[in-house]
Amino acid sequence: MEKWEKQLKDDVNRSLPSMIDMRVEETLKSLTRKNKKKKIYMGLSAAIVTLSMIFGLSIISPTFANTMKEIPVIGSAFEFIGNIGVKKGKDEGLTTELGEQIEVNGQIITFTETLYDGGELHIGYMMQGNAINHENHFMNNLQLFIDGKPIGYGMGGNESEVEEGLHAGTLSIHVRDEEIPDSFVLGIRSREGKLWSVELPVEKKGNHQAFLVNQIAKKDDLSILYDKITFFPTSTEISLRLMIDEKVYHDDKYAMIDYQVIDDKGRVLQPLSGGGGGGGPVNGVILHRFEQYYEPLQEIPGSLTIKPYLIDPNQSPPKIKRSKWEGENITLSQGEIGDLTILELKVENGFTTLTYAVDGEDLYGQANAIWLENSSGTRYYSEQPAVRVDGSINHYQTTFTETPALDDLFITTETMDPANYLKELEVTIELN
Fold it and tell me: What percentage of the chain exceeds 90 in pLDDT?
């Protein structure tokens, strides 16, 4: 795994700090599998280059159009594969509809829409063609431009197979240190291999509200400066800075730091992504800035509590806990961290939805440690992260498109170690 210094300097989008270049390769290599909803994470910085004339390939694909007609329930890549924030933006009419197509390595990519509300920039696409793998995926080694100007950025993405030969995906882009106009053309092109390019119109839509925080939490060798919290239609953005002792920084003591965010009602916010970076040491201290993105909120809460913690990459091997579904409530232990109780299993229109209550220290993490098995141990995973039930604090739902037969269905979880919270750095920020 790469050093944290490289992670910071590369401006990486992530949901967990451990998901860096190794995670990129693992995820891209797994894109031919059915369960591929984990985020793809990569950090890229813009370079000044001598531009030559490059034309995007505009390809009309009747086969692709016919395929889209056969799956009208999708409507757009955002509706099919978008995270909770992107889907909300789509529902609120904040997208710019597209239809641009390119061909890359025998794959036809149709960009379906863009979405920009002042936070991250999101792009939806449908991909038709041969098998997807790390070597020929069009996301590899991209350059991005705003109105022709190269930019530095961090990027993540989700992708899923709709049917054989057809994938839906999204890209989420965090632009670094650039002024972004309210309306612009986003240029995308490959840095290597067969040259291609595409230009996508983007328009800022939706309102946001920002709160200056200027709150600091300290311990001996680390300080966190919480600068601003912004509520966008598609996300909750927390801007913060880390001040780290130079020696500790190079020892990677805080290489795996992340944050749990809880609102004034006790709801744990779903993490979406994050990224940042900075320069070298000044007077023995390294200062880096981050933006962390969490689920959007319908109403601005009275306060947010931010609990930094360290992820232990050497956690003890989990123990599998499973129980056969017999139509009644089931409680499954997740070890010291807590447990979850299955309240309902509902089958409707080909989808199987579990509703369950979660008790413990990490409600969102625990809610996603669940899958289905049959008696022989074959696993079935959800296509999307768990979603908190509206109006609840600890009730979640997870939906499966493929399941075992009901008379051979086992609900499964695993034990989890409690998080290593840095209590000195915890803050509660009032939002009056």
Answer: 59
